[in-house]
Amino acid sequence: MDVTAVVLVVAQWLHTLAAAFWVGGGVVYLLVIRPVARRAEGGGRTLADEFRGLVDIAVITMVITGVVLAFDRLTSQHAGVGYAAVLGAKLALTLWMFWLAGVIRRRRPRPATASQAAASPRTGWRQLMDSANQVVIIGVVVFLLSTVMQAVFERALQ
Question: Are 152 and 83 in contact (CB under 8 A)?
Fold first, then answer.
């Protein structure tokens, strides 16, 4: 393997690893960190802040490696309109996901008392449409689109 191939393999591996951390971490955040942070009076805040630092590293890694991989594929003779269309959809959803994550970051939750939390339970569509839930749902769809892009590209190689 030449140096370019090694760089692309490493970029693909890092991109997938960062994306897995982003989506998997989002699930852990929703199911573990957020509930603990809501119950704790400031104690869970440190955990969420620590987690946020790791997410930032994953996002930077995904952006850098994503640009490298997209440039490599789009300059290939095998990347057709279908590949570009799926990449465009993936990019649009990714930007939306990053925007939602920024909204979550700017809108830091105020510590709620147990009576406040019990008075306004979030159920059904309200809970599903919560920004953090949307980030995870969109992340799963983006992961699917990555698999579709790979299949489209590999099909064009045949």
Answer: yes
User: Quick check: 52 and 21 in contact, CB under 8 A?
Assistant: no
Q: Are 19 and 142 in contact (CB under 8 A)?
A: yes
> Distance (Å, rounded) from C-alpha 37 to C-alpha 28?
12
Read off the pLDDT of residues 31-80 as tens digits, 9 standing for 90 and up. Answer: 777 777 767 665 555 676 777 777 788 888 888 988 998 898 888 888 88
Q: Are 104 and 135 in contact (CB under 8 A)?
A: yes
User: DSSP letters of 104-133?
Assistant: HHHSPPPPPPHHHHHHS---HHHHHTSHHH
Give the structural domain span for 18.
3-157
The total domain count for the chain is 1
Computed over every residue of the chain, the mean pLDDT equals 78
35: tokens are: 């509930």
The model scores a pTM over 0.85: no
